[in-house]
Amino acid sequence: MSVAPNLFHWHQCVSTLLDCDSDSQRVYALLRGVEQLVHGNSSMAILYHSGNAPEIVHHRLLANEQPSTQVDRYIEGAYLFDPFYRAVMDDEKQGLFFLREVAPDAFSHTEYFRKYYREANLGDEACYLVLGRNGRIASLSIGRARDLGSGRFNDQETAVLHSLTPVVENILRKWMASYETAESGQESFGKRLDSALENFGSSRLTNRECEVLHLTMRGHSIKSMAERLDASVDTVKTHRKNIYAKLDVTSQSELFYLFISALRQHSSGEPDPLLSLERQLA
């Protein structure tokens, strides 16, 4: 028999929301309130800017989550493989989504999943996504550790999270509308990283191989890639074999770190970040 959520904590949250002096404080109070309502224990509020680096404005990490990975490496470029970010960027999805709804079919085999879910001990994640003006995106994610029951949000908790959507979206939209950021100094950051991912490997690979490379890194299985590219499974396997040989890697994990390493050396004058990395190592 399911247990009703403790509404006392939610009523406390509503009272706090009404007393908040700023939109940022209101977002943090909301994050804590939703967390308590569904027994979440790893949460983040993130602003993605069209021209700047994303900002993890509020976060609460599990004991074994590392800020250098969950925060620093994420905003440096790993966010490009976040399935929630990809859902709103690629498909303009908005609303509440769970990891299982947006992750590609082989996502659990990716290096991103290993670092941000398995090693972090996260068993489930729910994320509210709101698309604002000027390409800005706000997200509020609630994570659940694997050692808390099954690690998955149950049906009642899922229903509660869905019922909160209008409140969460309203607060996130007001937060984005009032948020001021200086975009002049880093105007091209977000676009540069998106371009780096799009062109990664293009100096060595064919156009088709680049498509297979990007789908592989995002967590699509060979079958999924074949369906998306209208190709046979054997053809996709051949493309992936050629990619690994040309980039001198042996696994998806090595691909991930090759991209991150290339991204750190990338200059806007070279479309493929691999060229910047090769010049640095020469």
Task: Explain what you see.
- The protein is α+β, with helices and mostly antiparallel strands and 282 residues long.
- The protein folds into two domains: 7-178, Beta-Lactamase, CATH 3.30.450; 189-275, Rossmann fold (3-Layer(aba) Sandwich), CATH 3.40.50.2300.
- It has helices at 7-19, 23-38, 67-76, 83-91, 99-102, 111-118, 155-163, 165-178, 189-199, 207-218, 222-229, 233-247, 252-265, 273-281, and strands at 42-48, 55-60, 95-98, 122-131, 137-145.
- The protein has a five-stranded antiparallel sheet, sandwiched between helices.
- Helix 1 (7-19) packs antiparallel against helix 2 (23-38).
- The chain is globular, with a radius of gyration of 20 Å.
Short summary:
By secondary structure, this protein is α+β, with helices and mostly antiparallel strands. Helix content is about 55%, strand content about 15%.
Order of strands, main sheet, comes to 2-1-5-4-3
By secondary-structure content and strand pairing, the structural class works out as alpha+beta
Count of alpha/pi helices: 14
Q: Write the CATH homologous superfamily of the largest domain.
A: Transcription factor LuxR-like, autoinducer-binding domain
> For the terminal residues, how far apart are their CA atoms?
64 Å
Largest sheet: 5 strands, antiparallel
Report the strand count. Answer: 5
So what's the overall shape? globular
What is the mean predicted local confidence, pLDDT? Answer: 86
Query: What is the class of the largest domain in the CATH system?
Result: Alpha Beta
CATH architecture classification name of the largest domain: 2-Layer Sandwich
> What is the H-and-E element order?
HHEEHHEHHEEHHHHHHHH
Query: Unreliable segments (pLDDT under 50, ≥5 consecutive)?
Result: 181-187
> How much is the radius of gyration in Å?
20 Å
